[in-house]
Amino acid sequence: MDAVIRQIVDKIKQDIIEVFELKLDEVIEKYDRELQEINNKLDTLVMLAKFDNLGDEDARPSSTRLLRVHGHGAAGQLYFIFNSKFLLQYSTTAVATTCDPTHFLMNYLVDSLGFSKEEAITTNTKVTRLKPTENPQLVLNFFEQSGLDKTHIGKIVSAVPKLLLCDVDKTLKPKLDILHDLGLSGSDLVKVITGSMSILKNTEVSDMKSCVSYLRKVLGSDENVMKAVKKKPCLLSVKGCERLRTNMLFFQSIGFSDEEIKKFIVQNPYTLLASPESVEDKVDRLKKDFNISQGSGMFIHGVAVLISMKEATVDTKFGVFRDYGWSKWDIIKLVQLLPYCLRLSQERLRAALNFYMGELGLKPAYLASHPTLLMFSMKKRVLPRLELMRSLVEKKLYDEDYNLYTVLLPSDPKFYQVYVLPYKDMIPDLCELYNKIQLHGKAKK
């Protein structure tokens, strides 16, 4: 029974602390509800207790109602502990409150980092429930001194609030020094910190140094290490380096040069961080099911695509192509030329096939041979350009049977140079039309 009372007391104490964080009216209202819950628990335990206001008006803070329990034993203990704690909290001076770490953190999150009240409470709870400490203030000061602005600090605290519990000198400073030495700063630094939440908090400094040393040896320069780490921060963990080392040995064993592997790690480190079993399985499937040789420039990209997708997802994408009359060989041709097409969502894939095959009448064989067409954005590239070409055809400035691929392939500046500038004098509003089309496409994003 005493244990139950202690639980009740602890809960009440927490509510009292909230007086310093929430509006007094809200706390009083919440406190009234808690009183009712306490009554119910005491009734269940067949404890006879009475709750009323303190008789002495001068002995309590103004506009606040206190709990008074009559009786002895556990109930009397509840009265004594609660009354003492309540009066102690309300007699705390403003200076003492301001120095409280919790109070400081709440104010800092809201006033300096722009957190909403709800976000601040959530973050504060994640920190204070684990370890009452003054570290949050020290950590925040350290981040500021390290050159991070309020926006950067806000992103870090929001993503990894437990960092506020880390020791600055033993944990954070040595690790941030390592990242700074690689050339990481500002938003890039934030991306690495938030991209792998365990790096700053759990990885040992010595392990992190060993990982950086290994990556420098494999990739040849800090620039390459920084590029790879920005994409996959877990490369700085022991597990990440072990996976990388194992998969590198596998690719070396099947004939890939160190230079090829280095280039692939920089471009797509995710693949070499997959489980070795998965890597070997996908390599085998590319050779057998898609007839892609290791000498193909798309081989390593095919491995990356298959590793990033579940088997069922790949089969579902194949089913979409079959719905539009594609043969097995059409699909294989597509994957051989551009495996990244398999990463398109079903919705986007169907929209592209509906347009190219349904409206323009293109055949599967043509699309399989020109897979880039499927990758282009319909709203921002395909439809705006075809609308402009329609204007040129109507003005008899371009043949109606123009090559679709050569129109859609160029970059925006190149397209403007080839299909807009030569005709701007013949169609005075052509440039304006092009700009409107471009803006319309971006608005639909």
UniProtKB/TrEMBL annotation:
GO biological process terms on file: DNA-templated transcription termination
This protein's UniProt keywords: Coiled coil, Transcription, Transcription regulation, Transcription termination, Transit peptide
Source taxon at top rank: Eukaryota
UniProt keyword annotation of Transit peptide present: yes
InterPro entries in UniProt: MTERF, MTERF_sf
GO terms, molecular function: nucleic acid binding
Coiled coil: 17-48
Family: Belongs to the mTERF family.
Protein name per the record: Transcription termination factor mterf8, chloroplastic
Source species taxonomy: Eukaryota, Viridiplantae, Streptophyta, Embryophyta, Tracheophyta
Gene from which the chain derives: MTERF8_0
